[in-house]
Design a protein that fits this description.
The protein is built from ten helices and 13 strands. It has 373 residues and is of the alpha+beta class. A nine-stranded mixed sheet has the order 5-4-6-7-1-8-13-12-11, sandwiched between helices. A two-stranded antiparallel ribbon has the order 2-3. Strands 9-10 form a two-stranded antiparallel sheet.
């Protein structure tokens, strides 16, 4: 059986960054505007006044300080409170495919790959732009690859699910080189008028090349083992889409955008993920001291600290569990891949680490890797 490895990763970072200060300023201006428009209902007790946010509240709740977005002007405009993303004609590449291609090209260049070398493309992401044609097939066409391509969505765990899927194709001999991309335009689904969640997400695209060990370049990452888990929960949900519009104005309604029960998510996901990681470590015969680094899903700083502590048996240092959440925010499936991409260059042959995701579904995935010679 052919052994799969991770050959290279790629990252595309959008050009626009929104600081907490900018986001809070626009949100508070929107609050003042809303409260003034609804002052009679508020005074009569028919509506509750909206509350201001603050930079301190955002950072304490999430650990986020800024986020990258594909379009900024609409997000920071209190009269708009959503990104201006113009619809493109069907004969132009879609914006989701475009950012995926940018990340893919970096990964391919690092591994010395051309389009003819890629046998399969997987687009694994939370925030797909359309139902079909598959985003992966559009990426495949834009790169000039042959073979096959398809989309998959397991929310924030899409990347780890995609890595296992690509690894399985390699093991089975269906592909020698699999390109897995994670384009996430989370700002397109975020309710920027919700005090508890308007600061959570950012936009980005990542790419991972999963290849046969005998085909991959030197210094690849051996995949020691993967494990996936899902458990249904409504505590993180996104109803956006044509089937759930209900009426022409439905797309703008709050219940069609991202919503979550944050405290419930924290309470339920942390033990689930910690137990899953420890179980897979037992199966692979790994101890906490064998792991040099954890590249965890970048959703919430407190969640990552607690999960890392449970796995390692002590409070993790920044080197043991690096954070990109502060500057990228939650980028859904791409978060753990960004952390891996940016914080893995110091690994030497034999060093081991864990790529781990968790999120809506609930879904969770682990990918244990070892740096090859």
């Amino acid at each position: 059986m052919t052994r799969p490895v991770i050959s290279a990763t790629g990252l595309y970072t959008p050009p626009h960054s929104v600081s907490n200060e900018e986001l809070v300023t626009s949100f508070n201006a929107w609050v003042d505007r809303w409260n003034n428009e609804h002052r009679h209902d508020i005074e009569a007790g028919r509506a509750e006044a909206k509350l201001h946010s603050s930079v301190e509240f955002v950072e304490k709740a999430s650990g986020i300080k800024s986020r990258y977005v594909v379009e900024k002007s609409g997000i920071v405009d209190p009269k708009v409170m959503r990104p201006h993303i113009p619809e493109r004609p069907n004969d132009q590449i879609s914006i989701l495919a475009e950012i995926a291609v940018n990340a893919a090209k970096e990964a391919m260049a690092k591994a010395g790959r051309e389009a003819k070398d890629i046998d399969a493309v997987i687009c694994a992401a939370s925030n797909m732009q359309r139902a079909y044609p598959a985003m992966a097939v559009e990426v495949q066409a834009a790169l000039g690859c042959e073979g096959f391509a398809f989309d998959m969505n397991v929310a924030c765990s899409s990347a780890t699910f995609g890595i296992q899927t690509g690894a399985d194709f390699v093991r089975a001999g269906h592909a020698r080189s699999v390109l897995m991309v994670n384009p996430e335009i989370c700002s397109g689904h975020l309710n920027f008028t919700d005090r508890d969640s308007h600061f959570i997400f950012g936009d980005v695209a990542t790419a991972v090349l999963i290849e046969a060990e005998d085909f991959a370049p030197k210094g690849a990452w051996q995949i020691l083992g993967t494990h996936l888990k899902t458990q249904f929960s409504n505590n993180i949900r996104n109803n956006f889409g044509f089937l759930n519009r209900g009426d022409p104005e439905g797309v703008g309604k709050a219940d069609k955008l991202f919503v979550q029960e944050g405290r419930k998510v924290f309470k339920e996901v942390v033990p689930m993920v910690s137990h899953m990681i420890q179980g897979e470590m037992d199966r692979l015969g790994l101890k906490a001291t064998d792991l040099k680094r954890l590249w965890l899903h970048q959703a919430n700083a407190s969640m990552n600290r607690l999960i890392a502590a449970k796995v390692l048996g002590h409070e993790a240092s920044e080197e043991e569990s690096p954070t990109v959440l502060d500057t990228y925010a939650n980028t859904s499936s791409a978060g753990s891949i960004i952390a891996f991409h940016k914080h893995s260059q110091d690994f030497r042959a034999g060093d081991k680490g864990l790529i781990c995701s968790f999120g809506a579904g609930y879904s969770a995935g682990t990918v244990f890797v070892e740096k090859a010679a």
